[in-house]
Amino acid sequence: MSSPYRPIPLSTLERLEPAQMIDRARGFRDELRRRRTVRSYSSEPVPSEVVDACLEAAGTAPSGANRQPWHFAVVRDAEMKRRIREAAEEEEREFYQNRAPPEWLEALAGLGTDERKPFLEDAPVLIAVFAESYEMRGNRKIRNYYVSESVGIATGFLIAALHRAGLATLTHTPSPMGFLNEILGRPPNERPFLLLVAGYPAADAVVPQITKKPLAEIASFH
Prior knowledge:
- The structure is a single chain.
- This protein is α+β, with helices and mostly antiparallel strands.
- The protein has a domain at 46-87 and 116-202: 3-Layer(aba) Sandwich (NADH Oxidase), CATH 3.40.109.
- The chain is built from eight helices and six strands.
- Strands 1-2-6-5 form a four-stranded antiparallel sheet. The protein has a two-stranded antiparallel sheet with strand order 3-4.
- Helix 2 runs antiparallel to helix 6 (147-164).
- The radius of gyration is 20 Å and the shape is globular.
């Protein structure tokens, strides 16, 4: 049996001089340092072409066996956003009142979060990210590989792309999130991974005063 492997020459990677590489790397680092998680949004619409291009950027992410096990459900409809908020807040109330251990609540205290999630209705765009554990081709179930890792990488690409386009984002993970399958009509082979909020910050938006760990704390060199 012949192999399906059909390689082609690599022609897409631009070779840069070291000084250019350093400049680009530091520029991208500095741009991402300006990214902040935002919880207050303007209702101003976002061009669909912007969201489409960012989703296409996310779709370039590497994945296990190139199975691309993700689905992005873009929500702009006000009624759907209302239903998502109601379902999410129900889970969040249970989390804050009954599920969360004291140390978790203590960790969240400095971020100013609680069970109220008005951004789920205020923001112009919600992107529900689903992880596909398997595909259905007719009656045949095709397993996907390294699903969480692959979808996590694609989501990171998406967040960076939205930031690059001038939009604020927030990653929201109410647990459990099965309500997203019901509201958005997604099949059982798709597991909600997270809910990404995107839009322009409100004029009076504020963010918590936080710091990020320095390089020496997040990396080792051998």
